[in-house]
Every structure is written in C-alpha cells, then in structure tokens.
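Lecture 7, part 2: worked example. A protein chain together with NAP.
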Amino acid sequence: MRLLVTGVPGLLTNDLIPILEERHEVVPCTITDLDITDRTAVSERLKACRPEVVINCAGYTNVDGAETHRQEAFRVNALGVHYLALACRKTGAALCQISTDYVFDGRASLPYQPWDVPRPLNAYGASKWAGECLVASLLPDFYIVRTSSLYGKSGPNFVATILDKAREGKPLSVVTDQIMSPTWTVNFSRGLSRLIESGLFGIYHLTDQTQGGISWYDFSRAILQAVGADLPVRPIAAGEIKRPALRPAFSVLDTSYLTMVTGYEPLDWEKSLTQFLSDRTG
Ligand SMILES: NC(=O)c1ccc[n+]([C@@H]2O[C@H](COP(=O)([O-])OP(=O)(O)OC[C@H]3O[C@@H](n4cnc5c(N)ncnc54)[C@H](OP(=O)(O)O)[C@@H]3O)[C@@H](O)[C@H]2O)c1
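Predicted complex, written out as structure tokens:
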C-alpha cells in the first residue's frame, strides 16, 4: 500500500516509518513538507500523492502547554485533522488517526474499551477527542488508534528522562497514583502495521500489556533496576507536583479487541522494556 505518514520526525514516527517500510511504500511528511493546518496544502498533497492510507502522527503533544495554548492545540489536533479528513474523503484515502488515553477521565476501575465514552480532563485530551469526533463523523474509512505513555529511541520521553537522571545520579520523585500502560513505540508500530492491513475500520486501543496497569513510580523502579542503577526513588502523589494539566488517575486501555481483529498480541511491558534497553546498548 502507499501510505502517507505525518508527524516526521517524532517519537512515534522514528520507529514507525522503518517498520511500515518493510511492507509498504511510505511517504514521510515533515511539517515543512505538509503543515496539516494549511487546508490547501493538505488537499494538494493528497491529490498529488494518492495514498491509500494517511497515518496522522502529527500533533500538538505538549500536554501542559496546551492548557495555556489551547487554541494552538485545537488548531493542530482538531482543525488539522478536519482538513485531513476532508481531503481523504475527496481522494478516497482512509485516515488512521493516532489518539490518546487522555481522552478518558480516569475514573474507571477497569481498563477502558474502545467504545467507552471519553471525557477528557485537560485541553490536550479535549483537542484530541475533537479530532477523533471529526474523523468519525466525516469518513466512512477510518482507524482511530489510542495509545498511551510512549517511549522509544528518540526523546523526550519518560524512559529517557529516568535514564538521564540515573546517569547524573540525581534523586527522583515519581507519582504512585497515576496508573497507565507504558508503550514501546516499536511494539505499537508493529500492531499498527497489522491493523491498517486488516481493512477493518474502527476505533482501537493499542498499548503494551500491563494486566491492569502500573504506576509511573513502579515503571521508574523497573527502568532503574533493568540498568542496574541504585538510585532511590521517592514515591509521591500527583497532587504534590504543580503541573498545569490534570492527568487521569487511571488510563489503562484494553487492547483485546485489536487482538481479536488482527491477531496481534502486544508485548508485555516488561518484555518491551528489556528489548528496548538491549536494542539501545546492542
Ligand atoms: N507521546 C506519547 O506518550 C503519546 C501518547 C498517546 C498518544 N500520542 C499521540 O501520538 C502521536 C505522535 O506522538 P509523538 O509523541 O510521536 O509526537 P512528537 O514527537 O511530539 O511529534 C509530533 C510531530 O508532529 C509535528 N507537527 C506538529 N504540528 C504540525 C502541523 N501543524 N503539521 C504537521 N506536523 C506537525 C511535529 O513537528 P514539530 O516538531 O516541528 O512541531 C512533530 O514532527 C500524536 O498524535 C500524539 O497525540 C502520543
């Protein structure tokens, strides 16, 4: 298939592009190649390129920044997605929109299903939910794929931060009361590649497996242990750090429907972490 991928370079696309290229023709787009908030550019680019699927990894991704730059977040995560959806409708391309666990409010006690009703707590989540609604209302052929807490070989991301702190021997304080599923970009990319080949359009959840989620605190301890760093981590509550955006206390996504559809079984988070760390050093 010919795939047009936005959001290059980025934490996700740096691993996604080579994985897609194993089986598909990929047209990677930087913001200079294609600014998704430029309606004419979006329309012309899709007309010229004629992709079968557009994978939109472009986004305003600064969760705290979105609280004070709400309009900019909506311009990229809603309006830009709106333009992409309209251009896909015109050219007959399917749109694969990457979205987030932050569309949920975190009040659930069981992992979220793709059909659970979103209720974002922060501006970033609200803008991503707006993008999802636009895609689903404008297109017959779409994938909305929510993921969470990505890490990979390019930063910034949580694993990179913990490894930096370990190297510097800096003390760490990490929250115990936010439960999520950390996700290795390679694991996500392999699953996404399978999904877009299925032709089974819809809303999906794709993260590493955590059996009900882990806290950022537990994740930080696992990272340090895996690299043999003997650094104390102070457990803290989310309320102790003053950050502009509220985060859901529980944002674990249930991925079983994606497995039912594609047969893809995401790796367990510990296997992902081990593999990621050994790829880095190997
Ligand atoms: N990171 C996570 O933990 C996480 C979790 C859940 C979902 N997601 C979603 O996954 C996707 C990829 O995330 P990521 O962490 O890989 O993002 P990232 O590293 O921040 O990369 C985002 C990319 O989008 C580009 N971009 C921004 N505005 C654009 C525009 N108007 N037109 C075209 N490109 C634009 C950025 O370019 P510049 O750098 O030049 O601005 C950058 O290349 C996003 O949709 C995000 O919401 C991420």
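The pocket of NAP is lined by residues 6-12, 31, 35-37, 57-59, 61, 76, 80, 98, 100, 128, 147-150 (CB under 6 Å). The longest strand covers residues 94-100. Keep this in mind for problem set question 3.
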